Amino acid sequence: MKKITILDIMKMKGEGKKIPALTAYDYPTARILDEAGIPLILVGDSAGMVVAGCPNTLSVTMDEMMYHTRAVARGNKNALIVADMPFLAYQISVEDAKRNAGFLVRAGAEAIKLEGGLNRADTIKAIVDMDIPVMGHIGLTPQSIHRMGGYRVQGREKKQQKKLLGDAKAVEKAGAFSIVLEGIPADLAEEITETIAIPTIGIGAGPRCDGQVLVIHDILGLYDNVQPRFVKRYVDLKKSISSAVNEYADDVRQGRFPGKGHSF
Ligand code: KIV
């Protein structure tokens, strides 16, 4: 398998090849995704929720994102690693944003992702100008949870749709190599996908995006605090882990473990 770069991801759109992306936050998961041939691994700030148990992503820090990014980079050989810029890493000043993007690259990211459209165009351009590829993220942007009044589908009304299309164009113009479309109607995602030249990666944005991304804990059944409609669960690992843990505890209680083969 060959190392995937942003050029490969961009080419996939032109070739009509769908882009399957997943999040990872640690070494073993990154290894599994990479060995499965997943071309793009996102070190998402969703780590704050699915790994650390926070109610939203707002408390995630740069230190935490660097820690997760380093772990993922150690487990990865070929996938493109994109790391999320957490809340407060890029909203205060463009200087902050440039420095923090650089720290994520030092930790092993090959591109960074940040939330926002036209309002973040200058920030995206400044980071791209320092040769760090940027992935945009518009629609339902979890770091704006308080403005949105919760995790709500965005772009249901005409005015909002026009704004989101303008945001997508601004992100592309600022130099982003791709863009996440989260929580928007499928028709709007299709229109954006057909309008801009960079790949759109959808999450809760219907089937006509150039790629799809999901949170790994959601598809594996490891995070059941919420069950968004757009998630497809492929396995119930919580159940499997729970039964393994119970079996182990039972073995210890009954004196079946350790056996002869596990003892010196
Ligand atoms: O943090 C994250 O996992 C994300 C994806 C859901 C797009 O931003």
Report strand order across the widest sheet: 1-2-3-4-5-6-7-8
CATH superfamily of the largest domain: Phosphoenolpyruvate-binding domains
Quaternary state of the chains: single chain
Q: In the residues, how many domains can be counted? A: 2
Please identify the top-level CATH class of the largest domain.
Alpha Beta
Query: Structural class of the helix and strand makeup?
Result: alpha/beta
Largest sheet: 8 strands, parallel, barrel
The shape, in one word, is: globular
Stated plainly, the CATH topology of the largest domain is called: TIM Barrel
> Would you identify the CATH architecture of the largest domain?
Alpha-Beta Barrel
Cα distance spanning the termini = 41 Å
- The counted number of beta strands is 8
**Beta-strand percentage?**
5-15%
Please tell me how large the radius of gyration is: 20 Å
Series of secondary-structure elements, N-terminal to C-terminal: HEHEHHEHEHEHHEHEEHH
The hetero compounds bound to this protein are: 3-methyl-2-oxobutanoic acid
Task: Give an overview in words.
- This protein is an alpha/beta fold and 264 residues long.
- The chain has eleven helices and eight strands.
- An eight-stranded parallel β-barrel has the order 1-2-3-4-5-6-7-8, surrounded by seven helices.
- Helix 4 runs parallel beside helix 5 (94-107) and helix 8 runs parallel beside helix 9 (186-195).
- The radius of gyration is 20 Å and the shape is globular.
- The protein starts with 5 loop residues before the first helix and ends in an 11-residue tail after the last helix.
- The structure holds 3-methyl-2-oxobutanoic acid.
- Residues 23, 42, 44-46, 84, 180, 182, 203, 213, 215 line the site of 3-methyl-2-oxobutanoic acid (KIV).
